[in-house]
Amino acid sequence: MALLDVHDLVVEFPTRHGTLTALNGISFAVDKGERLGIVGESGAGKSVAAFAVLNLLTRPGRIAGGSIVFEGRDLTTLSRAQMRGVRGNRISMIFQDPMMTLNPVLTIGTQMVETLKAHRDISDAEAKRIAIQRLGEVKIPSPDKRMASYPHELSGGMRQRVVIAIALLTEPSLIVADEPTTALDVTIQAEIMSLMLALCKSHGVGLILITHDLAVVSQVTQRVVVLYAGRVVESGRTDRVVHNPVHPYTRGLLAALPGEGEPGARLNQIRGNMPSLNAIPSGCPFNPRCDHVLDDCRAALPPLDDLDGHLVRCIRARELMTGRAA
């Protein structure tokens, strides 16, 4: 049984102009210790998927269908009190900006000790010992002294290391990381991702990495899910999806990476923009931007085609896979 099994998840946002569907029947699973990437442009539904797993959707957002089974329990059926026993305990989350996560008026040590005592019946001394140990694991120098520091006294990279240490405090079985390096300098991003990868391996923790960067996904994750307009358009083993992408959208994302173009030439880009939730095209939602579009693509939404474990939502998937598509 998978550690986390999300099946046919639907997330809606009711508005005065109608109901907007942010996620429309997406499914994915994470095994114990496995690392899964969820990628796509802004507006694809990546962060909504992460918040739905933790039941952190902002009202009036709601889970309107599907199931989220974690460690054998459907999280969509839990009460608020039961969910608090899961969130921050069995499932931890790392957000984009550490300054939005850490309390600016409390020391690092106070925040870490309070987090532990909220989920464990332990003494202050034991909580402090565990906190110092976790700070050491994320390569923070003099961790015992850093316990007395305030967030503003640390660099952005150091703050994100603290956030990772807090995520590991309760020994969760799953960490959800939502664009964890977006707010950091490029030189620091690789260090943080390498650190997260090493810690997930050493602690046997499952990871869901939310990002727009397929280059990061290829280095960190074992499987990947590509979202577009709230639907899964491609998923499978990361190495297979990255080296042999089939869906035109996945191919466009990979072609847009800086290293894919000629030196000095303009970067490749996917023409057009992600559709807004109240104006999703009929048929395949990617059809207005697709270079391989047919009339049938505008008529009906294609199902996910299973290409030997590599799932692709495109009526021309088999042609594209074999290179026969014009």
From TrEMBL:
Topological relation to the membrane, as annotated: Peripheral membrane protein
Keyword Transport appears in the UniProt entry: yes
One of the record's GO cellular component terms: plasma membrane
UniProt KW Nucleotide-binding keyword: yes
Pfam families for the chain: ABC_tran, oligo_HPY
Cross-referenced PROSITE patterns: ABC_TRANSPORTER_1 (PS00211), ABC_TRANSPORTER_2 (PS50893)
Keyword annotations from UniProtKB, A to Z: ATP-binding, Cell membrane, Membrane, Nucleotide-binding, Transport
Gene Ontology molecular functions: ATP binding; ATP hydrolysis activity
Family: Belongs to the ABC transporter superfamily.
PANTHER family: DIPEPTIDE TRANSPORT ATP-BINDING PROTEIN DPPD, OLIGOPEPTIDE TRANSPORT ATP-BINDING PROTEIN APPD
Protein name per the record: ATP-binding cassette domain-containing protein
